[in-house]
Amino acid sequence: MEEDDMRQLSAEELGALCSNLQKACTKQLRSEEAALFAVLASYYDKQRTTKADCDYNALLDAINKDLSEGFKDASKAAEDANDRGAKRALVWGEKASKLLQALMMRYEKQGSALLENTNVWVCEICGFVYVGDTPPSVCPICKVPSFKIHPIQKEAV
User: Fold this and answer.
1) How many domains would you assign to the chain?
2) 51 confidence band (pLDDT: 50, 70, 90)
């Protein structure tokens, strides 16, 4: 591994990593390890910082950059490593990002009216975002049941 490949992860990245490891341990019925990763995820979530330049355009630019460059680069790395799990997760992530991009374009046209009198849901497995009264019975991207699709608090939207 080259020196350029090494960098310190941010609190956001460490929180997401520990949260994902917690979910993996839960699936493997390793409750003690899952609980420890939950503590770490909570710790790093409290360390998060809010970026001053986080606005609609910055988010849309980040999504567009991921779709035009990020997924291609990551997919090539997963292919080179012959990592089927990573390839599957990248397919899900790219689909979720394309749907999020379309949702943001709808938001640009409709504004807050898009979210009035309805709910916003997110799949904890693949990141699929859905706007509607109730979540789909099965995630259209990763096919998990609806109990894995959680409501987002309106204050956060």
Assistant:
1) 1
2) low
